[in-house]
Design brief:
The structure is a single chain. The chain is of the alpha+beta class. It folds into two domains: 50 residues, no CATH class; 83 residues. Helices cover 31% and strands 26% of the residues. It is built from four helices and eight strands; from the N terminus they run ββααααββββββ. The strands form two sheets. Strands 3, 4, 5, 6, 7 and 8 form a six-stranded antiparallel sheet that branches. Strands 1-2 form a two-stranded antiparallel ribbon. A hairpin with a 5-residue loop joins strand 4 and strand 5. The radius of gyration is 34 Å and the shape is elongated. It starts with a strand and ends in a 6-residue tail after the last strand. 12% of the residues are buried. About 6% of the residues have low confidence.
Length: 157
């Protein structure tokens, strides 16, 4: 314990704090500051080295997966037979257009209980799709329907 100028007894951190002269940085402060600076510099260098020139992105864009009938069918197959109904077990799609996206597509989806539903599908540049002009095939009969499908994530070139 230490005595203050007024004669009172000092204890704890206050006495330890007053023992250091003004302008001297304490050891606990420097022991935190140096590792933080080292981590900051190392992180900066690591990020700059891993950033690269963007050549990986350019290569991936040049070799983007072509829009294929199998790729479209794989995504469209997930459409349910009706709201809350089972998903398709098989699907096949065929582009009817000549453009980059091949719009429109005729997709036929087979469901677990034997029903097959055909849709006219439009694919958007962002990979989303929507299908309408439903034709239901069941027991050898074709019946027009009003159902629609929509979804996302078709890989487009």
């Amino acid at each position: 314990m230490d005595r203050s100028p007024r004669g009172r007894v000092r204890s704890g951190w206050k006495a330890a704090y007053d023992a250091y002269p003004v302008g001297v940085v304490s050891l606990p402060r420097t022991s935190l500051l140096v590792p933080l600076l080292v981590v900051g510099v190392v992180s900066f260098v690591f990020v700059r080295l891993e950033q690269g020139e963007g050549s990986t992105f350019v290569i991936n864009q040049r070799h983007a997966e072509a829009l294929t009938a199998a790729g479209v069918a794989r995504i469209v197959k997930a459409a349910p037979e009706n709201v809350g109904g089972p998903r398709g077990i098989r699907a096949s799609c065929m582009p009817l257009g000549k453009g980059e996206l091949g719009n429109p597509w005729r997709c036929s989806i087979s469901y677990p209980l034997g029903r097959q539903i055909d849709y006219l599908v439009q694919i958007r540049l962002n990979g989303s799709y929507s299908g309408s002009d439903q034709v239901i095939r069941e027991h050898g009969q074709n019946v027009p329907g009003s159902g629609q499908i929509s979804g996302c994530c078709i890989v487009v070139p």
